[in-house]
Amino acid sequence: MTATSDGTPKVAIILGTRPEIIKCAPLIKACDRRGVDCLLIHTGQHYSEDLDQVFFDQLELPTPDYNLEVGSRSHGEQTGRMLEGIENLLEAHTPDIVLVQGDTNSVLAGALAGAKSNIDVGHVEAGLRSFDREMPEETNRVVTDHVSDYLFAPTEETKRYLERESVPGEIVVTGNTIVDSLYEYRDLAAEKSDVLNELNVAEDDFYLLTAHRAENVDTRDSFDRLLEGVSRFAAQTDREVVYPIHPRAQSRLDEFGLAVPEEIRTIEPLDFLDFLRLESAAALVFTDSGGVQEETCILGTPCVTLRYSTERPETAYVGANCLAGLDPDDIVEAGTMMLGKCADWDVPFGDGRAAERILDVLAVGAEPDAAEVPT
Ligand code: UD1
Ligand code: UDP
């Protein structure tokens, strides 16, 4: 990597969706602490207030320097428009390193634009594999890893996957930046969020559900079976389910004319503090989200994953997560097994200093005083 004339590498961070905003937040703040020149590019993949702006406000992030406002489109059109827009910005601003985080179309476009512009690319959360090529995210992960110069693997397991694929970039195990974010915000969530009162639910007396993956909600039968399994378990155990619903899932419910069972209460997507509070307080979380599998493991809430594969197997290895698939009987069985599970597992995603470690590897800016880094 070549440094700019004042010796400090210029960083471009590219993001576009809810989980990227949350997981890039520690990197953006670490750049700020170190006085690094950081260009923030938003692709506009997510644009609804409650998937986007609410996180910039709550996490006190700067307004992106550019928003490409690409919006919702087919995979090819969405990725193509991002690629063109990002390439133009990289050409105009000539950063020394492009950082992307995760596995969305925004990540793929950012990594390709950086690689095609001969700029070093760093992939944060590298090496995750579900080994299910039906998932659009799996293609994004594999391609991004193979064009990246720096692979910031969250765990030893993900490092091994990358070594097995002989990726050409430098692999460093850093932990996951979601730990940095949770350590910074979980106490604040407990202190500030009034969501339990607002929803009239009691600690340990409700379940939390999130489901938005294309392979689950885009098919009527899959979505129906998922809802049936979760609602049947709720009825059997006499607890309610709270489901902050992603707009993709809501639009599929509307399109399919699918009724949500009475045990499941759908609500609008929540901001980060309210969501963290619910995740911590729930007796059990049902999810198909990647980030939620990690967060429940870190927060000590047992999790049932409504998928047949996971790119976060570490959560299952430590006993925090169980893969149930979509069969209603299997969902009930997994719920029964995980409910009341003692959260004495080790957190496999690092110590909350992933962002600092990543900037250390890139030799970006001066290392801050330990007191400045949230723990
Ligand atoms: C995307 C990512 C997925 C990630 C998820 C995080 C890809 C291929 N998928 O899925 O990996 O888990 O973000 O939440 O990159 N919509 C809105 N408002 C928005 C954004 C989307 O209403 O701000 C609706 C639109 O109807 C859109 C649909 O959601 O068609 C899907 O949006 P899209 O960004 O294509 O994929 P996600 O399902 O959000
Ligand atoms: N999240 C949130 N409000 C919600 C649902 C999720 O703040 O109503 C947060 C959650 O804490 C996690 C992230 O969104 O950090 C997960 O995003 P999502 O499930 O959309 O994407 P994935 O992780 O599956 O890519």
TrEMBL record:
Stored InterPro entries: UDP_GlcNAc_Epimerase_2_dom, WecB-like
Pfam families for this protein: Epimerase_2
Record-listed E.C. numbers: 5.1.3.14
Alphabetical UniProt keywords: Isomerase
GO molecular function, one term: UDP-N-acetylglucosamine 2-epimerase activity
TM helices/strands, residue ranges: none
UniProt KW Secreted keyword: no
Domain UDP-N-acetylglucosamine 2-epimerase: 30-362
Protein name in the entry: UDP-N-acetylglucosamine 2-epimerase (Non-hydrolyzing)
